């Protein structure tokens, strides 16, 4: 069984339903995981996606912020969600395919602007959320699983446009990078994207603040595809659809893809 999975922080699924539909028509991933849906589940325009063949949807939502959804051409069982750090946010949902593979869709807190938990509650929440993920993976070691989502951390030096300038900027600070590494190690997760594309700058997010995001290219790789070691070698064809960042009224994130032969 070969399938392709994509992850995309859509920054409002209702506002950008036409962009989601365009991606589904043009790229046709078997599974699309969305983050920052900013919608209650019953308000997600699922019928638009079902017409395009994505009849399975597993989602958790909130009015106006957060929210995660898995759209799938393949039948999928809802495996529930986790509320790490007790935030009460819709930031995780999991589903299982008929072949037993589990898909985790995460939206890790962004962490605010100040990288100091004593001065910025949101930064502390981000670190606590990652600790919760780490502890869960340690307690229940995942198998035959894929983790995707907006993890809001660019871990490698070549995952950001300027490593030295961003060392004190939330998403690339050493404390975040170290905590993400602990979380990854706890589950034995393999960074599929970087296994496929091991060298060179690679970004999935460009700020709205840049007058010309493409020319400036001050990006960060915040969106990730991981897999457990038992299936990681089956992954291939990783890519970032950079062009989607240039679509009309786009999200500030671009979709990230990977395919699996399982």
Describe this structure in words.
There is one protein chain. With 262 residues, this protein is α+β, with helices and mostly antiparallel strands. It has one domain (2-261): Deoxyribonuclease I, Chain A, CATH 3.60.10. The chain is built from eight helices and 14 strands. The protein has a six-stranded mixed beta sheet with strand order 3-4-2-1-14-13. Strands 5-6-7-8-12-9 form a six-stranded mixed beta sheet. The chain has a two-stranded antiparallel sheet with strand order 10-11. 45% of the residues are buried.
What descriptive keywords fit this protein?
alpha+beta; Deoxyribonuclease I, Chain A; 25% helix; globular
How would you summarize this macromolecular structure in one to three sentences?
With 262 residues, this protein is of the alpha+beta class. The protein is built from eight helices and 14 strands.
Largest sheet: 6 strands, mixed
Anisotropy-based shape = globular
Count of strand segments: 14
Count of the separate structural domains:
1
Corresponding CATH architecture:
4-Layer Sandwich
Number of helices: 8
Rg: 17 Å
Q: Percent range for helical residues?
A: 25-40%
User: Which structural class do you get from the secondary structure elements?
Assistant: alpha+beta
